[in-house]
Design a protein that fits this description.
This protein has a domain at 10-167: Zn peptidases (Aminopeptidase, 3-Layer(aba) Sandwich). It contains 5 helices and 7 strands. It has helices spanning 10-20, 30-42, 114-128, 150-154, 227-241, and strands at 46-49, 55-59, 71-76, 98-101, 104-107, 137-142, 164-167. The strands form 2 sheets. It has a 5-stranded mixed beta sheet. It has a two-stranded antiparallel ribbon with strand order 4-5. Strand 4 (98-101) and strand 5 form a beta hairpin.
Length: 245
């Protein structure tokens, strides 16, 4: 029996549950690519895959809606793969153990992958629907969003035809984003002089845990603790007050 058969919209949650069973770490999306290709064939829909691994499934317009402007719906296939330290889970082979907890859907000991599994599920529900009336639809599923936007960067011009794109990867229900600030990667190289560890030194293991966490973009204004910054502050101040190395 499905864990989600009593919640709506049924089709979206059915597909989300199927997606949770498919391992899909960044840069290792082979299984979810195959799932999407098989889905398109079962639905008798046109599907193509580019060299990067991006998948595009096209659905013709409903009768009487052929003259509407085409729209592309976009999500990404990969997910952030993190787990609790006491959980034995292999993201390359194991399904996500999703369950309902009150008004929330959670995963036992791991990230859930709703970013962007729920976007994929919404697209599949639309593609499979015989009830929704629509113009021409293209559904784009990109690879490796979480660790570099590789799929988007490597996509060739002309892979899809629509001039309107709706991205299904945001945090707030019932809201549309019409722009964003963009992003930037910085690669820094530092020179250093290696020193021998004194023979009378004692090695210490320091762990920072129990923080609230959160999304690096959506929660950046909440002034939450960052374990990397906290431990670096500790080391910086410690080297000035004590004989730390």
């Amino acid at each position: 029996m499905s864990n989600f058969d009593k919640i709506s919209p049924k089709d979206i949650w059915m597909y989300f549950e199927e997606i949770c069973k498919i391992p899909r770490p960044s840069k290792k999306e082979t299984l979810i690519i195959k799932y999407l290709q098989d889905f398109a064939q079962k639905q008798n829909l046109e599907v193509k895959t580019d060299e990067a691994g991006n998948v595009l499934i096209s659905k013709p317009a409903s009768k009487g809606f052929e003259n509407l402007q085409p729209v592309v719906l976009q999500s990404h296939m990969d997910m952030v793969c993190e787990k609790n330290s006491d959980v034995a889970h292999n993201f390359n082979t194991d399904p996500i153990n999703a369950y309902i907890d009150g008004e929330w859907i959670k995963a036992k000991g791991t990230t859930l992958g709703a970013d962007d599994g729920i976007g994929i599920a919404a697209q599949l529900a639309i593609l499979a629907s015989k009830e929704i009336k629509h113009g021409p639809i293209e559904c784009l599923f990109t690879v490796d969003e979480e660790t570099g936007l590789t799929g988007a960067f490597e996509m060739k011009e002309g892979f899809f035809n629509s001039r309107i794109l709706i991205n299904l990867d945001s945090e707030d229900e019932g809201e549309l984003f019409i722009g964003c600030a963009g992003g930037m990667d910085t690669l820094a190289t530092f020179a250093y002089d290696a020193e021998k560890v004194p023979t009378d030194s004692v090695a210490l293991k320091i762990t920072v845990k129990g923080l609230s966490g959160g999304h690096s973009g959506d929660d950046i204004d909440k002034n939450r603790g960052n374990s990397i910054k906290i431990i670096n502050r500790f080391l910086w101040k410690g080297t000035h007050r004590y004989d730390l190395r």
